[in-house]
Amino acid sequence: NFTMPEKAEDLPPTVPVEEISVTESLEHKLNRMSDTLLDIVDTLDKTTRKLEYLEQKQDQLKKQHVLDIANTVDKTAWNLQQLSQKHDQLKKEHDNLPDWPSKSGFCIFADFDCPKGFDSHRGYITPNAAYHRFQTTYNVKNVYWGSSFILCAGNNCPTAGHTFQLVINTCCKQN
Questions:
Q1: Concatenated DSSP letters for 81-138?
Q2: CA distance 153 to 159
Q3: Concatenated DSSP letters for 17-59?
Q4: What are 34-82's pLDDT values in tens digits?
Q5: Which pTM was predicted?
């Protein structure tokens, strides 16, 4: 390192005085350039460390993301296997059930109109009150389900001389 003497008299006798100011100016510029270069190197070093940190963080996030995806795929595969086993079990149980409705058809209680594909059927019993004239009370409870019913008609039911009805309305489907 070259250090500039503080006084002109300290210079060797061969250096002219006018060169001293040029040398001081160059030394000052060199020092500033050196400081700037050191700042650049320091900034570059910090930037390099930050970049390395970010690359490590990115690698960690990629690995975690891959693990998350792998776990999701494993869980989905397990759930799919469970559903497939349940499906097979239910299919086996279904295959072992007897045919229903029976091959001859089936009926349901009507609620006034029958569903599409069903035929309406109505049956009833209305006993003659005179036929039961010796009986003074009857075990009858009025009840309605859909358009079917059991009914005791008249005042003071159930006593002799009243009309009793059993009406059953169904919707049937023949196979």
A1: HHHHHHHHHHHHHHHTSPPSS-TT-EEEE-BSBPPTT-EEEEEEE---GGGGTT--B-
A2: 10
A3: THHHHHHHHHHHHHHHHHHHHHHHHHHHHHHHHHHHHHHHHHH
A4: 999 999 999 999 999 999 999 999 999 999 999 999 999 999 999 999 9
A5: 0.37
